[in-house]
UniProtKB/TrEMBL annotation, chain A:
This is Uncharacterized protein. Keywords: Membrane, Transmembrane, Transmembrane helix. It comes from the Bacteria. The chain crosses the membrane at residues 14-34, 258-277. The lineage of its organism: Bacteria, Bacteria division WOR-3.
UniProtKB/TrEMBL annotation, chain B:
It comes from the Bacteria. This is Uncharacterized protein. The chain crosses the membrane at residues 12-30, 42-60, 72-91, 103-122, 142-161, 173-193. Keywords: Membrane, Transmembrane, Transmembrane helix. It comes from candidate division WOR-3 bacterium.
Length: 281, 215
């Protein structure tokens, strides 16, 4: 077996170990690679920035589960920090059952950092089945669709929900989406198209390529794509002085970049091995 | 005190549980094994149990049990009966009844979805692909507008099967293939990024939350 053939038959466990090393090393030797913020992340940041403080709430829908946490959860934390730092009220809901725990986790983590109080500054509506019926119902009446919040409190007893009837009272909705139901299957067709709601999105990298056409058509106000999008938003709020909290997505970007370089190298080596072996035959 | 309550009082116990389960799942890289099987079955069981609990507290109780037994709203019996009809599929003589809720859901779903999808996926996307006057604002918007417009036209031509693709039609369709390949490449690149992100997330958890060796 010559070198080219051996190159094409590297044990997959060696490849796994190589990728693991490439990902781990930048945690200890940071390279600070992130230097540019994409226009779509900047547009989402600007849209949140345009919401008037102590007025109508920002709506965030948790349409992901723990499997997508590394990519989307940092977006949720960063968005909450941005809103709370600017005294923008926040209403959180979930279209995914498994998003309920993640919503509570993020709110319980971020709200105390800014001294925000449940009911007065933010509310958690929780989850209801029948996603299309839920978002369409909210266009008619939010209190009728969600008579109570996640903790069984009637919405009219929550100060943050006073005067919030339907999407007319939501300046911006953001879906943090890992698939279906999510921004492309529910929020764009049923909420943006039907009610003209200003809509932002944070999506997993897998679905980012599918989401970009909606950005160009103006159906999305802004977009965060994968962990890179989360890192960009963390960078934006840190630069604006809204937070000094940890930035897990920015920290991960060095590992991400090095892993991409390693994968490109492996693709080149694999193809070189294939071409050389075929020539010999 | 219950043993589970006792466990929750131990600092970091759930981080240890999460870390050991993560390692058990990673052990699949070396092949199927009992540790992986335990973690996999535990994941399925916990997920289903969690969902049933949320379904009960967020749906059955506030939308069916409370209105019916506390509010006296007997109207909720109708959707409840419709829902129960789904279980008729397990009884051969009554299995026809499953068509009632399915017909209702399909009819409602199609009626709601068709105009919404047409509006957002066809009409707005065509509008977004047109060479609109606002694209003339700067040189880069003009260039990207033309690139995007050509991409839409050539890709649609590639999927035009009513006539044999030869001559000019073939040239245009081949340009469409290039656009499609670039699209596949972008999707694959993003998929790699997503999978690496998941690995990074787990390694951050192991190194930061469990071992405490990174900040």
């Amino acid at each position: 077996m010559n070198f080219a053939e051996r190159l094409g038959r590297i044990d997959r466990r060696i490849v796994f170990a190589f990728i693991a090393v490439v990902v781990i090393v930048p945690f200890f030797l940071p390279l600070s690679i992130l230097s540019r913020v994409s226009p779509e992340a900047q547009r989402l940041f600007d849209a949140v920035e345009d919401i008037r403080p102590n007025d109508k709430p920002l709506l965030i829908s948790i349409d992901f589960d723990p499997q997508s946490m590394p990519e989307i959860y940092p977006m949720l934390e960063a968005l909450l920090r941005h809103a709370f730092a600017r005294d923008v009220p926040v209403v959180v809901m979930a279209l995914w059952v498994t998003g309920v725990g993640l919503g509570e986790l993020a709110l319980n983590q971020v709200a105390p950092e800014y001294g925000k109080e449940y009911g007065r500054d933010y509310a958690f509506l929780g989850w209801k089945p029948g996603f299309a019926a839920v978002v369409l119902g909210m266009g008619r009446s939010i209190p009728e669709t969600y008579p109570t919040d996640q903790y069984d409190t009637p919405l009219d007893e929550l100060p943050v929900m006073q005067g919030v009837r339907n999407y007319d009272d939501i300046p911006l909705a953001i879906s943090l989406s890992a698939g279906d139901p999510g921004v492309m299957t529910v929020w764009i067709p049923y909420v943006q198209a039907r009610f003209g709601q200003d809509l932002g999105a944070g999506v997993t990298a897998v679905s980012a390529a599918d989401a970009y056409p909606f950005l160009q058509s103006g159906q999305l106000t802004g977009l965060l794509a994968g962990m890179k999008g989360a890192a960009e938003y963390e960078f934006l709020i840190a630069e604006a002085g809204y937070t000094e909290a940890a930035t897990p997505a920015i920290q991960a970007m060095d590992s991400q970049s090095m892993a991409h370089l390693a994968i490109i190298l492996l693709i080149v080596l694999g193809n070189a091995s294939f071409i050389l072996t075929r020539k010999r035959k | 005190m219950h043993v589970l309550e006792l466990l929750t009082t131990v600092p970091g116990i759930w981080v240890w549980v999460g870390a050991l389960l993560t390692l058990a799942i990673f052990s699949f890289l070396f092949g199927d094994n009992p540790l992986y099987k335990v973690a996999e079955h535990l994941y399925v069981g916990v997920s289903v149990g969690y969902m049933i609990t949320i379904y009960y507290w967020n749906f059955f109780k506030p939308d069916l049990i409370d209105p019916l037994f506390r509010g006296g709203q007997f109207i909720v019996i109708i959707p409840a009966l419709l829902g129960l009809c789904y279980f008729a599929i397990f009884i051969q003589k009554l299995s026809w009844a499953v068509r009632i809720p399915m017909g209702f859901v399909l009819g409602w779903g199609a009626g709601v979805a068709v105009p919404a999808m047409l509006q957002s996926y066809i009409i707005r996307q065509i509008q977004g692909s047109l060479l609109a006057p606002e694209m003339l604002a700067s040189w880069d918007t003009i260039v990207w507008g033309i690139v995007s417009f050509l991409g839409v036209i050539t890709t649609v031509v590639y999927f035009f099967f009513s006539r044999e693709q030869k001559g000019a039609l073939k040239v245009v369709a081949n340009i469409g293939i290039i656009y499609i390949m670039v699209g596949f490449g972008a999707s694959f690149g993003y998929t790699v990024m997503a999978r690496v992100s998941l690995l990074i997330g787990r390694l951050q958890f192991l190194l930061r939350d469990w071992l405490g060796v990174i900040s």
